[in-house]
Amino acid sequence: MAKLPEREQCQTACELVAYLRGWWGYFHLAAQRQPLLDLEGWLRRHIRACFWQRWHNVAGRFRALRRLGLRPRACEVARSSQGAWPLAACWSLHHALSNAVLRSHGFLMPSDLAALTRC
User: Fold this and answer.
1) Is residue 40 part of a domain?
2) What percent of the chain has pLDDT over 70?
3) Low-confidence spans in the chain with pLDDT less than 50
4) What is the pLDDT of residue 59?
5) Are 12 and 105 in contact (CB under 8 A)?
6) What gap in Å lies between CA 113 and CA 94, rounded to an integer?
7) Model-level pTM?
8) Range of 62's domain?
9) Is residue 24 assigned to a domain?
10) Which residues of 24-56 are buried (b: 16+ CB within 10 A; e: fewer)?
């Protein structure tokens, strides 16, 4: 599994989780939680785009996608000339950086926080 440098991974994940916990604290008290839950897809796509940009070039992207378990044919997306945002929605990147992989990197989503507060 492709890992970010420990310091960068922790800093990014910790900042995002702290930000989400703050908003969840607000929306937890509010009657309408749906606006925060609606942002979840956008958040995941943005995180995938950030991973894509940190891999810097074709060789780095190809290696990272292979380490994440994609077959060589699916890794051809690394050669794409599209930007990070459109590619964050493609099947290859979505499969390589699944929700479980993002959680393993420390990224919690609003639905995760909702599940924690229900318990």
Assistant:
1) yes
2) 68
3) 1, 4-6, 119
4) 92
5) no
6) 22
7) 0.70
8) 34-118
9) no
10) beebeeeeebeebbeebeebbbebbbebbebbe
